[in-house]
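We modelled each protein-ligand pair independently. The example shown here corresponds to the guanosine-5'-triphosphate entry; the chain sequence is given first, followed by the ligand as SMILES.
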Amino acid sequence: MNTSLDIRFFALQRVHLAQYNQRGMESNQKIVRDNKATCLIVLGMAGSGKTTFVQKLSEHLYENDTPGYLINLDPACLDMPYPANIDIRDTVNYKKVMKDYGLGPNGAIITSLNLYTTKFDQVVTLIEQRSSEHDHFILDTPGQIEVFNWSASGMIITETLASQMPTVIVYVMDTVRNRNPATFMSNMLYACSILYKSKLPLIVVFNKIDLQSHQYLLEWMTDFEKFLEALESEQDYVSGLTRSLSLVLDAFYSELKAVGVSSVSGIGMDTFLEAVEGAHLEYLDIYLKERETMNRATKDVAIGLSNMTLKDGAIPEDENEDQEDESDAVDFST
Ligand SMILES: Nc1nc2c(ncn2[C@@H]2O[C@H](COP(=O)(O)OP(=O)(O)OP(=O)(O)O)[C@@H](O)[C@H]2O)c(=O)[nH]1
Ligand SMILES: [Mg+2]
């Protein structure tokens, strides 16, 4: 990535986190508690069906007279099957980012998301304005899950939204591809890492159940013997590792909400929405308190970082001008 852009983004990230931690603690708790809407951040491996899921869910909500507010954060998506209220592609030209910064596809997705995040406060303002009109704010994320989950911009977006309203991670899994117990295990480990990293309620959505029932996956989660049976045919060292890991994951499974849906037929959408209601309450009862404690602990560090940025001039004036130039090129008219 372009180094000056990298430095600027890092500095912005530090300022943002500092502001978030102060603002989040002092004034946002009430806003979050009073907010009836739920923000759903849809994550999952490439091709698991995130976009199709968002489309079907939005159709379902529309039929129930509670239309959702849809946000697309995938800059590289070609065909959008749903009418997004906010679309990253209206703001950042992914192909131009690739050309301008000499990047490959994944680097360009990360940089596009970074550029977008520097303007994410405008998205938050739009969400705030709409929060009384919608019960669900749904975010579709890029195919390469790590782009969102392991990037600074993904963290800033998640933290910003979670400081505004009850926020839930929806982890979409391809039921057919997870027939293999080792694949299932690695996918669940990923879900587990997202849960602990984001510190937000998480719903696992077993998608594509029109092709393959998800019941056996639920059994694997509740009955360790069944999972071992499935592993029996695999006698390599990986299955030994999987055995040990599945024991570790037992506690994680007991806390987890998992539902099966088909994003093609729409089966399971009502069950999913019930799980969302539960997760909303769980956010208020458990996660918000944990976040308060966490924020308190990081407040001093955040203020220190904020002061350091100002003192060191980590964002020089001319860099700021560059920033303005770049964002001028961006059309934020949504
Ligand atoms: N049969 C069936 N196919 C599905 C379902 N959900 C998604 N698909 C198909 O799975 C493929 C991938 O779906 P997408 O919605 O593009 O998946 P995605 O996770 O958004 O993909 P990326 O954004 O590229 O990571 C498409 O061909 C969809 O038609 C489902 O519930 N049932
Ligand atoms: Mg997609």
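DSSP finds 14 helices and seven strands in the chain.
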